[in-house]
Backbone:
């Protein structure tokens, strides 16, 4: 059974800092990995998707990496802004059901 | 217009009541999913459907049932609601794997409170 862990559970940084969110998983037989953003009381917004055969994806100030051999993914946020404040969720898609297994998230607060 | 919609957005009910949560999508996707989110536990899979005639249980299906009325509609029912089913419920869709993209798209969620 896939288990996904996100560290840290919460993070507070001053505006402008670069930061890294971590995601680790136990089963490397994945189809893809998605990073989501969730704002309080809102739904999930997909940020980046990395296919199993890929090592990283970039979108604007966001960069996500995938290392299946070590069971790890990182989400790098450059030059953080207060608008980046949200909970960030890592999710792994299995190869059979194509369903997602989620981590419990990292709650990010960027101080102005 | 939202591609994945959920109704109601908020619902308060009492123990023992039957509740239906509805999900509709205009994305034309074959696959639909129901997840629940509890504080500190992330999202967990309740049921999923690959098409109208293919419905499967997820990790936490006990106490829930689903109906896929059409390609675009997937409903989740709580036959007799209990307080520990209080949670945020999300519907998601994804295209057929033959499309080459297995990204999931989520609805806005339904906040359910069972008293």
Residues:
């Amino acid at each position: 059974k896939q288990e996904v862990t996100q560290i840290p559970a919460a993070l507070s940084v001053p505006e402008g800092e670069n930061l890294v969110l971590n995601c680790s998983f136990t089963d490397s037989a994945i189809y893809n990995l998605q990073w989501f953003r969730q704002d309080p009381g809102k739904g999930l917004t997909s940020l980046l998707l990395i296919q199993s055969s890929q090592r990283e994806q970039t979108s604007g100030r966001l960069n996500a990496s995938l290392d299946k051999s070590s069971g790890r993914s990182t989400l790098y946020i450059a030059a953080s802004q207060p608008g980046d404040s949200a909970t960030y969720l890592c999710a792994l898609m299995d190869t059979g059901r194509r369903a997602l297994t989620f981590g419990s998230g990292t709650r990010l607060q960027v101080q102005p | 217009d939202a591609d994945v919609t959920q109704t109601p957005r908020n619902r308060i009910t009492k123990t023992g009541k039957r509740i239906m949560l509805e999900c509709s999508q205009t994305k034309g996707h074959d696959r639909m999913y129901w997840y629940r989110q509890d504080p500190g536990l992330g999202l967990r899979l309740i049921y999923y459907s690959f098409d109208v005639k293919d419905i499967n249980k997820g990790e936490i299906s006990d106490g829930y049932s689903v109906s896929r009325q059409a390609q675009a509609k997937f409903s989740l029912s709580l036959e007799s609601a209990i307080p520990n089913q209080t949670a945020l419920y999300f519907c998601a869709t994804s295209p057929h794997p033959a499309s080459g993209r297995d990204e999931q798209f989520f609805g806005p969620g339904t906040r359910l409170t069972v008293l």
